Amino acid sequence: MVSAVGTAAAADAERPNILFIFTDDQSHRTVGAYPDAYPWVSTPHIDRLAESGIRFAPIAVGSNCIPSRATMLTGRHSTGIESQRRRADASLPDYDERGPLFLPRVYREQGYDTAHIGKWHTTGGTGHGRDWDHQKVWSRLVGGSEFNLNYQSNQLISTDGGEPVLTEGYSTDNYTRWAVDYIRGAHRDPAKPWFLWLCYDAPHGPFLPAERHADRYRDSEVPVPADIFPPRAGKPGYMQQVATWEPGADGVPVMRETHYEADGVLRKHRADRDFPHTYPDWVRLYHRTVCALDDGVGELLRALDETGQRENTLVVFTSDQGLAVGQHGFFDKHAPYEANLAGPLIFSQPGSLPQGAVCDAPVAGVDLPPTLLKFARIDPPWEMHGRDLSPLLEDPGRPWPHPALNVYTIGAWGEETAEIPDFSARDLPLRGFLVPWWVSLRQGRFKYIRTLVPDEPEELYDLEADPEELENLALEEAHRETLARYREAAGEELRRIRAPFADRLPSASTDP
């Protein structure tokens, strides 16, 4: 059983509202405020959010959709969550008694009005009346309908636990409009502080931009990543099979036909629309889909300003994970590289937090739930894997001794992760590769990766000197001491969170 919920330490008037904006597959490269963005990227409203707050180093909230969201709802990595199972029919009970429960229930019990708007992609039911006072939700899992794949348009929307109704329109704009209504007072108790989890479904594929942005970035230059084609020296065996792109007739990369078949969302929407042909056009389309998100942030901030709630509202902007668009040969997340996983992280509350600040300390997705609870003056209701980031929010430049751990266990949870599967016995998907389980740890300038397959190489990257993660330093004698230190740190973190496989890591290759 999970422990009882914590107690609020302050009156409602002293506790801030929390607007938690959670986008889908959005790399930090799509936000102009980040140095890694292409020079032509324009996101003035998200940039203004960063200017009024703290922009963190790119964050890996999670490894893919469901684990990232489950982590936000529980404060734990997948290895410590027993209530989840990745099943398409989502037929499990709402919660398993081994828990942990979902955190919005705790906010409700401690005096917050809670709302969830947008995408739901977690098993266990959407939780209206138990976790959420108000919901306008598109469930990626429930119902078994073709509309479950309708990213960005014409979705089945359930309101406050009701039956889903086909709702026309562009999802990003719909979600923004419903969120603005809530901020302005609709569907909530005006006497309570509020917690709104706004889950956009963009820029996830099929990368459908709003009509008003159809010509954005049309002539922008897009360089081709250095390792878009294999081989990829120093990387594990599966990385030699990643080949989403192939040279086109003029040498410009194009997407392989097999990727359309392997990606269910692209396959469904291919009959309804023309997709780009070349790699640069795919990159432009991906970034174009972010433009409406930026518009939405502008509308949200305007509503907070006009209702006098801006200074009493903590705004957090991040994404479930990033997306590699050509980097390392991918058009995907899942893999342990920054290009696949890293997204933006911005905290903003004028008058309470520094403005225009940058925090270079690597932090993890599991750090966000305890941090938000701290702002709400709520004690953590159970043991969490993350660390409260309040010290960094007070002083973004202070030394941060904690590493940022991430784990990838595909669809396994809790006790299921005790036994690492034999990936040699698993069928490959149509795309021709399968990302196996892995563990990564970032601290300071270095990042360590352990692929959980016997006799694969460990990986160590200097993210300052080699941000594209092209040179595996684990294979170099000069970095043996650093490798050993990071290997031990990863083991310590796995034991700290009591990962069931912590003491069963397969042997790693030491061959150069």
Description:
The protein has twelve helices and 20 strands. It is of the alpha/beta class and 512 residues long. The protein has three domains: 16-210 and 288-396, Alkaline Phosphatase, subunit A (3-Layer(aba) Sandwich), CATH 3.40.720.10; 215-285, no CATH class; 405-509, Arylsulfatase, C-terminal domain (2-Layer Sandwich), CATH 3.30.1120. The strands form five sheets. Strands 6-5-4-3-7-1-10-13-2-14 form a ten-stranded mixed beta sheet, sandwiched between helices. The longest helix is centred in the last third of the chain and has 17 residues, at 480-496. 52% of the residues are buried.
SSE order and pairing:
Blueprint: E1 17-24, H1 44-51, E2 54-56, H2 65-74, H3 103-109, E3 113-120, E4 134-139, E5 153-159, E6 165-170, H4 171-183, E7 194-203, E8 245-247, E9 253-255, H5 257-262, H6 264-270, H7 279-288, H8 291-306, E10 313-319, E11 324-325, E12 331-332, H9 338-341, E13 345-348, E14 357-359, H10 368-375, H11 390-394, E15 404-408, E16 438-443, E17 446-451, E18 456-457, E19 459-462, H12 480-496, E20 508-509
Parallel strand pairs: 1-7, 1-10, 2-14, 3-4, 3-7, 18-20
Antiparallel strand pairs: 2-13, 4-5, 5-6, 8-9, 10-13, 11-12, 15-16, 16-17, 17-19
